[in-house]
Specification:
alpha+beta; 29% helix; 8-stranded mixed β-sheet
């Protein structure tokens, strides 16, 4: 059962990534956006992610589908990811955002825990997940995630059953256009 569910979820993520990429390509985004070929990569939270695009000098755009929020089901996350210690960190990106794009909550290394769960092929695997799931209201807003010595995130979760490509594209475009407008001033 788990293997077939995993395969179906991988297909959902690839489909969502292709839809998001297609929607973003329709937008008037800066030429500094370098679209990446769809490649499924594993997460430490019982799921996968896909790098959508690289943004020259800024955090990359990614789409995740994993169990970080809730071990019982996977959720989509979309937004920007920076390696720990990068010059253009998530902090500098967030600092430039207007009030409507400011994160509602901050998740840190103290926010998550490792658990053993039943994974593919009925084997127990270590997963990283939130100790206390943020409220549904909070995850509908931007979230900043800063983990010691690890990646930094600025994005949003999708709490719907189906991926909302328009919501994801709007958020990503708003962030990129804010930075582009900020640079033009």
């Amino acid at each position: 059962m788990t293997d077939s569910k995993d395969q179906a979820d991988k297909k959902r993520l690839v489909k969502a990534a292709k839809e998001l990429t297609a929607e973003l390509r329709k937008q008037d985004l800066p030429k500094a956006i370098d679209w990446v070929k769809t490649k499924l990569l594993p997460t430490d939270s019982n799921g996968w992610f896909i790098v959508i695009a690289k943004w020259s000098g800024y955090p990359r755009l990614e789409l995740w589908f994993d169990k970080y929020l809730d071990i019982s089901s996977r959720h989509f996350w979309f937004g920007f990811v920076a390696e720990g210690g990068k010059t253009h960190s998530i902090k500098s990106l967030v600092d430039a955002m207007p009030t409507k794009l400011q994160p509602r909550i901050l998740l840190t290394s103290d926010s998550y825990e490792r658990k053993k769960v039943l994974g593919s092929k009925n084997k127990h695997v270590d997963v990283i997940m939130e100790k206390h799931r943020p409220s549904t209201q909070d995850i509908r807003h931007p979230i900043k995630e800063i983990y010691k010595g690890e990646e930094q995130f600025f994005g949003m979760y999708d709490d719907r059953t189906d991926f909302d490509v328009n919501r994801a594209a709007t958020f990503i475009c708003d962030v990129i256009n804010t930075i582009s407008d900020f640079q033009a001033d």
